[in-house]
Amino acid sequence: MEVKFIPTEQLKEKPDENALGFGNYFTDYMFTMDWTKEKGWHNAVIEPYGSIQLDPASMVLHYAQETFEGLKAYKTKEGKVLLFRPDMNAKRFANSNRRLCMEVLPEEMFVDAIATLVSREKEWIPTIEGTSLYIRPFMFATESAVGVHPSNAYKFMIVLSPVGAYYPEGVNPVKIYVEDEYVRATKGGTGFAKCGGNYAASIAAQVKAEKLGYTQVLWLDGVERKYVEEVGTMNAMFIIDRKIITAPCDGTVLPGVTRDSVIQLLKSWGYVVEERPLAIDELMEAGRNKTLQEAFGTGTAAVISPIGELSYKGESIIINDFQTGEITQRLYDTLTGIQWGKLEDSFHWTYEVN
Amino acid sequence: MEVKFIPTEQLKEKPDENALGFGNYFTDYMFTMDWTKEKGWHNAVIEPYGSIQLDPASMVLHYAQETFEGLKAYKTKEGKVLLFRPDMNAKRFANSNRRLCMEVLPEEMFVDAIATLVSREKEWIPTIEGTSLYIRPFMFATESAVGVHPSNAYKFMIVLSPVGAYYPEGVNPVKIYVEDEYVRATKGGTGFAKCGGNYAASIAAQVKAEKLGYTQVLWLDGVERKYVEEVGTMNAMFIIDRKIITAPCDGTVLPGVTRDSVIQLLKSWGYVVEERPLAIDELMEAGRNKTLQEAFGTGTAAVISPIGELSYKGESIIINDFQTGEITQRLYDTLTGIQWGKLEDSFHWTYEVN
Ligand SMILES: Cc1ncc(COP(=O)(O)O)c(C=O)c1O
Ligand SMILES: Cc1ncc(COP(=O)(O)O)c(C=O)c1O
Question: N6-(pyridoxal phosphate)lysine: which positions carry it (chains A, B) (predicted)?
Answer without folding.
Answer: 194
